[in-house]
Design goal:
The structure is a homotetramer. Helix content of chain A is 42%, strand content 14%. In chain A, the strands form three sheets. Chain A has a seven-stranded mixed sheet, with helices on both faces. A four-stranded antiparallel sheet of chain A has the order 10-11-13-12, covered by helices on one side. A two-stranded antiparallel ribbon of chain A has the order 5-6. Chain A is globular.
Amino acid sequence: MNQQNPVFIPGPTNVPESLRKAVDMPTMDHRSAAFSDILHPALQGVKQVLKTREAEMFLFPASGTGGWEAAITNTLSPGDKVLAARNGVFSHRWIDLCQRHGLEVEIVDTPWGTGIPAARFAEILAADGSHGIKAVLATHNETATGVCSSIAAVREALDASRHPALLLVDGVSSIGSIDFRMDEWGVDVAVTGSQKGFMLPSGLAIAAFSPRARAAVESAKLPRTFFDIRDMAESYAGNGYPYTPSVGLLNGLKCATEMLLAEGLDNVFARHRRIADGVRAAVGAWGLELCAKSPDLYSDTVSAICTPEGFDAGRIVSHAATVYDVAFGAGLGEVAGKVFRIGHLGSLSDVMALSGIATAEMCMADLGLDVRLGSGVAAAQDVYRAGADPQRMAAQ
Amino acid sequence: MNQQNPVFIPGPTNVPESLRKAVDMPTMDHRSAAFSDILHPALQGVKQVLKTREAEMFLFPASGTGGWEAAITNTLSPGDKVLAARNGVFSHRWIDLCQRHGLEVEIVDTPWGTGIPAARFAEILAADGSHGIKAVLATHNETATGVCSSIAAVREALDASRHPALLLVDGVSSIGSIDFRMDEWGVDVAVTGSQKGFMLPSGLAIAAFSPRARAAVESAKLPRTFFDIRDMAESYAGNGYPYTPSVGLLNGLKCATEMLLAEGLDNVFARHRRIADGVRAAVGAWGLELCAKSPDLYSDTVSAICTPEGFDAGRIVSHAATVYDVAFGAGLGEVAGKVFRIGHLGSLSDVMALSGIATAEMCMADLGLDVRLGSGVAAAQDVYRAGADPQRMAAQ
Amino acid sequence: MNQQNPVFIPGPTNVPESLRKAVDMPTMDHRSAAFSDILHPALQGVKQVLKTREAEMFLFPASGTGGWEAAITNTLSPGDKVLAARNGVFSHRWIDLCQRHGLEVEIVDTPWGTGIPAARFAEILAADGSHGIKAVLATHNETATGVCSSIAAVREALDASRHPALLLVDGVSSIGSIDFRMDEWGVDVAVTGSQKGFMLPSGLAIAAFSPRARAAVESAKLPRTFFDIRDMAESYAGNGYPYTPSVGLLNGLKCATEMLLAEGLDNVFARHRRIADGVRAAVGAWGLELCAKSPDLYSDTVSAICTPEGFDAGRIVSHAATVYDVAFGAGLGEVAGKVFRIGHLGSLSDVMALSGIATAEMCMADLGLDVRLGSGVAAAQDVYRAGADPQRMAAQ
Amino acid sequence: MNQQNPVFIPGPTNVPESLRKAVDMPTMDHRSAAFSDILHPALQGVKQVLKTREAEMFLFPASGTGGWEAAITNTLSPGDKVLAARNGVFSHRWIDLCQRHGLEVEIVDTPWGTGIPAARFAEILAADGSHGIKAVLATHNETATGVCSSIAAVREALDASRHPALLLVDGVSSIGSIDFRMDEWGVDVAVTGSQKGFMLPSGLAIAAFSPRARAAVESAKLPRTFFDIRDMAESYAGNGYPYTPSVGLLNGLKCATEMLLAEGLDNVFARHRRIADGVRAAVGAWGLELCAKSPDLYSDTVSAICTPEGFDAGRIVSHAATVYDVAFGAGLGEVAGKVFRIGHLGSLSDVMALSGIATAEMCMADLGLDVRLGSGVAAAQDVYRAGADPQRMAAQ
């Protein structure tokens, strides 16, 4: 595998040089004062990225799945009822995790390619006068289908019936790349990982708890130790960690948040929007459609692209890997074989994106799809040219 | 903090140059074939280090604490009874974790500085005719006190009464540095982390399950998803991973096991023995005593050194950090303030060890302890000279 | 500057991950035996890349310019006459260096964009019955114009009149990327650097001396010490170096030659040919012309592309750098403002090349040139698809 | 070779983590504006380290030997007479270089272990009424013997007879570690390398030219191109470089000077003094003597230690390398076999120094020398304890 081509999987993302170096630290004593100078800025930086003043941040040496587990075990008890939509592999997996932990999940099955049905949620919550539903689970960005749902709408569904259920949000493939407003949206637990918008290797689960979620921890009866936020909170207060931390990744997270905040969150989001617009323009030029059913659902971090009926989309992914040393995402679950995915999140430039689009084009042509070479690239170039900073243009 | 001095904490250990580079990988697609070429050699390498042919290996993106949780949640059910000795902070914490997961722990309180009381275990197990005890927990090497217990003796205690309880062993600070014979000792679950004998950064929990432990997973009712070995096993079989893996650390683990096996496990253990002998000789020369009560308990990975009555041992640790940029381990729990610890595991050379010993000497002298400068170093040098490979000597 | 976009300058080239790590070594004692295990394989590897059995290799901590200086100071004396063509900036600079060292240069001024005029050389050499010309200088690949000349033809020109002049060849931007046959072509001194076909950072001048060139060193009167190959030869024989070597770069060179030989030199050359063909196809699709006047002169490592009359080609280079964070080469010397250059040598993949072509397209469009977006990319894709390994295609 | 032990050769020195990372850069376009942001701060930083406001800095991709060559070829002409003392291998080599470049060297042979005989220089210069001597060469710190001479005294020797000869100084193993006052001492050319006080890998020759030296360049007739400071000066003025620069090393130099200036030059020199004092105390405790004849000559960067008559000092060096994986410096030239050298310059901590001293002790004992284990360490510890920052002590 040529290690110089960028990857176009929807995470882990390409790691910028400076973050590679931030993570690659010599061993330091995590019980020393120096650790505190890494931990607290990392926590503070994540808070700013999540746009929250109220929530507390917790950083586990784990993956996003661990973050999901932390979200429910710290807030719920066996037998508790939660409400969730199933519209892709990742929402499916979170539901599965809840069931395996003894929760009762009211599943709203939703066509893949569509978003969280907030209106249906509102009905269900309104009907739940006894407040049997303890939490609503929402996958902000379904990585499997490239669908970004409105969390604000889910909050409205809760507020409409003044329902007290906690709002637990999977922001794994959105946070850091797509606007996320924890406080404004009344999110109670937000979960993400180091390997997406934070542009780091995998290995950190990031979970943010609102004061309400934080308060729920005392009555939550699901067993937990590794993921217990109380141990974390107590340790952080003493500038420590409840077990051995992944110091390099924490240092990377500190630097990643500095990088994002230095670029400016709005600029980061606009860059992701522009790059995604280019990919979508390419998809249109190829005569193909996204799995996401409507523009309001289009994800700025990953595009799941439907291939023609009867064609195995997985062949594009394996062909790209084998022949061109380029990694795309395969379709997962219900859409396996029907879509291939271009990840366009994290540290990606327009120029890198163009090489991914050009490669997808070659693969489709190699495999006999009716795609004109250069067509998608040209459509994306149009977007990227328009997106090139006019101030810098003027400075020429 | 001068990043060039070695650390002398009992883990994370000094990371060798080649492993730094093995971990620091550019992003690769963990769903590609290349991932399999990392995962399977890593699993196979760990098996060899554990001296097991029968057990299955599981690698979680977590810390050793996560490994403990994996050990119990995959084999036990709420209300199950387990037997454990409490003879240091880490055995204490594992017991606490069990209790928080709803297990009933029969605790044998054991003086810190002594080992697992195998005879007492034998009595308890013999008396447990109904086999109410489902598992025996054993901390191979108590990092807090520098005590290495005999796991073979615990196995004998079980065998004496043909007790079917599972034997779960915490080998976090022993495996890879001290001989560990999973099959010979009949260990059912062995737990360790990446950051000790494997000389890597923290971030991987390593858990090995014997066929019996593997069979127990179906009836084990403790909730788990992140740590469920069934998902792991199924994914490994398909050359995959149940969620996003820490690819760099897995690659590091592959290389670390290659490194250990290339040196030869017996040579690795002999090196740790020699370095530890040097440290112990120094302690003797200083007129101090180890926390470990007798030579058969001395740990080859960490020495907890008792300071004189009335002296706060923590001052040595903070003085070394502040004045000499050297990290030692503080006393934890019951022995806080009474001992300081010199970690001597992982990738350490005699030469590096001498600088730690020399620093400890300066600190003790600075703080008014009656220690003659050079005395500990000289004692250790005697050991290290004798330990210098006579074949290489001859080759001069 | 986004550090994740590839560079498209004609060297230094993109450094592969594995070579980055090979160069980034901790300090080692260059007077130890371990140094010999780096030096000699590096020397041996370079020999194989140069296709010579007879020549001796010398590795200086310097740039290619230092290599030129080593070539002449070790073989010539003040007042000696040399023959050289001037058809680009780099041949011009080598001539200048000769003049500053007191050599008399018979310059054959040659239109930029054309190659070494071997027929004219033959005439001059034939007319030089007294053998006043001591050396013929030849720039194999003119980096400024993207012209690759035939060294075999220069050798024939010498042989035609049995002229004994030494043949000194600048292979800086060819060796390692374009076929170079030192023995077959009768090259007496070949010069290159670490930062082109060897894919390393700059910092090593590589000079190969044939037995005849090696013999000339005793009578050569140009002063030299730093570049004296006699000191080098004597030190190498003792596994040493005459002064402090750049150990990391030497280790990188060892690894780079292993990498090239593992890929297979023919495969390396074919890859460069294919990538260059794609770039040239793009240039054709843009309706532009290369500076190189005819296909037999086209360089497989760099394309100098003529922009329309009246347009300042340098604007493309600065625009690409400022707006798209991509580095192209500017026109130098006579062709400054008239051409821009795309370097396509070293560790480059088709996919990376496509992103360079796509960027050049956007720049030209941004700056008002009549270039259709996607046109060059499509033309290159056609080449790269055909070039995709059919065996791997079949393996799908 | 264990890559974790520090090296104790008198350069290249141990490279700090941050400088390793500064040097290990991805490829950038050295013709871009970003290069200027590396080059000029590096030049400026070196100026401050040299304590000069007037001199111009030149940075060549070469070793210190290249710096010597730059010093003479830019200021002198064939047949010019220079005055030099020969008191070690490095002064010897510089003299040899001059002779090979056609200079007439008036050599003052001086016993190895003693310094530059300034009084004898004064006599010779006073006697040179015709000012036939064009330059005086001075080796500030003889790395072979561990002798640091007074450059101020050489300047006085020149001033005493108002002799206009240029003062060319080899500061390779002093600059950055020992005080160097270019302007105050009236140094005309100062030469050093990247791999000593600047703590970087080898690969940069650093040469500083006073206005007088700078003026001499026009009349200097020694041939040069690679080392011609005029090309350098012209290129620097245009934010460029006359050929391909070693960008990573230049970036490392920028960071190294920032590091030195942040620590404070006086603190850097005091640290070297303290560490050297410790080594010298150890030598005394061993009952051995330095090659340097008197305390005013003791070098703070390297100690050459005389072993007893009849003992081959080289055995210590090879024994340390083979048995303990530690690199010391061998004796060179006249003192080969008579001394071994401990380098203590660059990025070294007291703690690292102690491991070197402890290793030397073990080697000497292993090889039968009458050295008491721990004796040298204890003597050095005494120095390092006293040297430990009392303010930090107080802060405990």
